[in-house]
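Project outcomes to date are best conveyed with an example. Our students and postdoctoral researchers have been running inverse folding experiments weekly, and each run begins with a structure described purely in tokens. The record below, which covers 797 residues, was selected by the lab manager from last quarter's runs and is presented without edits.
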């Protein structure tokens, strides 16, 4: 009897195993394009899949029977169908565009379309996710055209930055959902204040050059338009953990409600990142969260976003002296245990977008950002006079110097609103956008003494400087695209921008400062594009941008020499093509600057280095960006930038300590390269998919020589470098979860020693034993890590 029951059980199990089938199919749009990442689910079974690069999907080992298949994709109508397994045929599913209002219109007004005659690159969430193991957005964008990224701590966590076409973050406009992100005074973008923000990004559009009108800081080299996560129709949960070299850890939890009653949706993310850094003691302790939720109707969307980040990083700002690069690449001059930067920034966004009839759409957003924090420094044997303190007299001894620990604070509020209206004619020949924004920055700058080696007439938290600043920024723009004839589109974009900026108080160098400045800018843009009908779009445009000086240009300038605003005239011309397995963009650019502000070595009245306007400078070059699918298993992609970046004439000032009375040597330079502007930037990526859901990628990056200043002096230069990274991605779809994904990223596999960033200064000293002098140049570099790795596991429920 026991044997019979046992044999029957084996027979039933075997029968069950044989009575299982696989479901295969392809998901396409109405245009015939395969849709990557469509969500495929057999309702009630916990089984599902996601479509691959060509829209193909497969669900294996399904017991025979009747099921309800559901397929969904953002921006498209969901598909549902009863199926009977076994199903001998491969399903062909075509999804229609959704009749519901999509969230993409939130960023539509400040973005370029395929018909816009400007140079841009779209980076999708799937592209970001492949590399997202806790490093900041600048590092994740390293392989996009004309980008050079860097990290102070050398491992991509903590303070990071990027340059596009040689323009740094202060000249790159960044918006989140159309809302300005750049600091109003410095124009900088501090990604460290938004840890793991990449995990909440839907896509990024990067404009190179002036691009189209946007909100906030001037687009003076490039712009980055970021859209945060869109709602998902299905409820989900996600856990993402990664670890790697330098004790790097990242932990992320993300949940979403899906659409409740087909109208309401809520999503949340909580992240923590820590790293010891490649540079000594350059640790990072980063925390953040992202909350979003709202009402998603057929004609109206109202949503609230909260983005919060808190960071503590040990300072690695000083760089490594050139003399130590070969012997101690991880050198950090700071040893005080709390030489840290501490900052928290909270962003609140209330956004509306809606259809106003058949031809009109509207978008509006209110925002508020609260930022506060400080960096702490130990100052050995510092002058008391630097803090407005009198010498200390003890037992007849006068003390004018002592060890001091200080904190320098920022406490600021940034708030305002943005809006846009879009009108499209029934025949789609006219597309008109009118929009703008009004924003105010209100910031307090102050410094505290929290400890002294020798106590003086001061109390803890006494402020040795304090000043306030208020900046109002208003802009209005109108854009129109007109189809003049079949395939020929004319484009015009006119923007007015007004800035009122004032500050008053005592600066950190103990100088009384007071200023009140107004700027009124008109920024026109004109162009045309032509669609040939065979997948090609030709375009040409002319654009103007104007940019006000930053805070330090005003506060540090000579009393009798107020810095002038900068002007940029930009020509872009190129071709975009999408033909079958080949896509590419080839373009020419010319950027002519008037009164660009650059460091010259000139000193102000208290010995601080200032920037000065140079009359004429330019950037010109070509950019190539292409991808080709050789076969279902092999894809190659890459980009190349060749450029000339020149200052026609400027005056360099070099400190001269070889004479009794300090002076500055004056040298006039002509036709020199602009600092941090390599002539060659390139990237190449080879993707190999040996079997389903497994991908191996070789990522290569080359950056040519970069000069540290504008003198084109080869003794003040960053050497060219090439890096090679290896990435492995493998996804499983077991029964108990929607997706299980493993990622391994090996950076710098050939252990190249390279430095993408640095700074320099020079001075004359007496030549010992003679009446002559010698020029001393000190270069400091930010070395990046040798071979290192990051590995992650992502589980989606």
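After processing, the design step wrote out the following sequence:
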């Amino acid at each position: 009897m026991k044997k019979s029951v046992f044999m029957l059980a084996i027979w039933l199990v075997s029968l069950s195993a044989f009575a299982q089938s696989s479901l295969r199919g392809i998901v396409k749009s109405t245009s015939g394009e395969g849709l990557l990442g469509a969500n495929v689910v057999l309702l009630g079974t916990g089984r599902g899949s996601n479509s691959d690069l060509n829209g193909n999907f497969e669900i294996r080992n399904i017991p025979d029977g009747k099921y309800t298949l559901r397929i969904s994709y953002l921006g498209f109508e969901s598909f549902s169908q009863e199926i009977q397994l076994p199903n001998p045929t491969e399903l062909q599913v075509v999804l229609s565009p959704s009749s519901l209002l999509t969230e993409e219109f939130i960023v539509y007004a400040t973005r370029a379309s395929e018909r816009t005659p400007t140079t841009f690159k779209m980076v999708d969430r799937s592209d970001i996710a492949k590399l997202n193991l806790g490093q900041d957005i600048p590092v994740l964008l390293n392989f996009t055209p004309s980008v050079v990224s860097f990290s102070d701590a050398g491992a991509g966590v903590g303070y990071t930055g990027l340059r596009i076409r040689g323009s740094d973050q202060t000249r790159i406009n960044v918006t989140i959902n159309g809302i300005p992100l750049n600091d109003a005074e410095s124009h900088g973008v501090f990604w460290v204040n938004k840890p793991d923000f990449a995990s909440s990004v839907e896509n990024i559009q990067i404009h190179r050059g002036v691009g189209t009108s946007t909100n906030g800081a001037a687009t003076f080299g490039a712009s980055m338009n970021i859209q945060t996560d869109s709602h998902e129709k299905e409820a989900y949960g996600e856990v993402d953990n990664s670890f790697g070299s330098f004790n790097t850890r990242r932990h992320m939890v993300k949940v979403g409600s899906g659409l409740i009653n087909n109208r309401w949706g809520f999503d949340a993310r909580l992240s923590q990142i820590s790293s010891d850094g490649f540079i000594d003691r350059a640790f990072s302790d980063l925390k953040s969260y992202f909350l979003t939720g709202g009402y998603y109707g057929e004609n109206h969307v109202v949503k609230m976003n909260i983005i919060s980040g808190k960071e503590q990083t040990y300072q690695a700002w000083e760089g490594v002296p050139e003399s130590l690069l070969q012997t101690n690449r991880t050198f950090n001059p700071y040893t005080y245990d709390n030489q840290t930067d501490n900052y928290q920034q909270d962003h609140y966004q209330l956004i509306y977008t809606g259809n106003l009839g058949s031809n009109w759409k509207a978008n509006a957003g209110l925002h508020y950002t609260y930022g506060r924090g400080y960096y702490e420094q130990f100052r050995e044997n510092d002058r008391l006079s630097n803090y407005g303190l009198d010498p200390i007299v003890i037992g007849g001894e006068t003390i004018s110097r002592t060890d001091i620990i200080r904190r320098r604070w920022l406490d600021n509020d940034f708030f305002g609103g943005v809006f846009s209206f879009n009108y499209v004619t029934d025949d789609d020949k006219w597309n008109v956008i009118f929009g703008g924004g009004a924003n105010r920055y209100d910031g307090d700058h102050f410094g505290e003494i929290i400890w002294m080696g020798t106590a003086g007439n001061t109390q803890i938290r006494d402020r040795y400087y304090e000043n306030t600043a208020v900046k109002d920024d208003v802009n209005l723009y109108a854009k129109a695209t007109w189809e003049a004839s079949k395939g020929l589109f004319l484009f015009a974009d006119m923007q007015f921008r007004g800035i009122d900026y004032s500050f008053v108080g005592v600066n950190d160098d103990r100088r009384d400062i007071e200023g009140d400045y107004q700027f009124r800018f008109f920024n026109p843009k004109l162009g045309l594009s032509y669609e040939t009908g065979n997948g090609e779009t030709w375009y040409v445009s002319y654009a103007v941008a104007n940019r006000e000086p930053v805070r330090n240009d005003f506060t540090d300038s000579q009393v009798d020499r107020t810095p002038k605003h900068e002007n940029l005239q930009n020509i872009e011309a190129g071709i975009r093509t999408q033909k079958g397995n080949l896509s590419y963009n080839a373009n020419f650019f010319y950027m002519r600057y008037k009164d660009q502000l650059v460091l010259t070595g000139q000193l102000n009245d208290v010995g601080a280095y200032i920037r000065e306007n140079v009359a004429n400078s330019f950037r010109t070059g070509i950019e190539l960006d292409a991808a080709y699918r050789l076969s279902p298993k092999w894809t190659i992609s890459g980009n190349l930038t060749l450029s000339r970046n020149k200052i026609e004439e400027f005056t360099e000032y070099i400190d001269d300590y070889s004479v009794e009375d300090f002076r500055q040597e004056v040298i006039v330079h002509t036709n020199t390269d602009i600092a941090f502007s390599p002539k060659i930037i390139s990237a190449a990526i080879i993707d190999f998919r040996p079997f389903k859901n497994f991908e191996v990628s070789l990522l290569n990056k080359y950056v040519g020589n970069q000069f540290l200043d504008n003198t084109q002096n080869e003794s003040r230069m960053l050497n060219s470098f090439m890096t090679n990274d290896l990435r492995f991605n493998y996804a499983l779809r077991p029964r108990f979860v929607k997706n299980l994904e493993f990622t391994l990223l090996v950076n710098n596999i050939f252990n190249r020693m390279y430095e993408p960033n640095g700074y320099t200064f020079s001075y004359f000293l007496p030549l010992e034993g003679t009446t002559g002098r010698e020029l001393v140049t000190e270069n400091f570099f930010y070395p990046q890590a040798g071979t290192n790795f990051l590995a992650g596991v992502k589980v989606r429920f």
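Helices lie at 2-18, 105-108, 125-131, 137-140, 551-555. The mean pLDDT is 91. The training component of this project remains on track.
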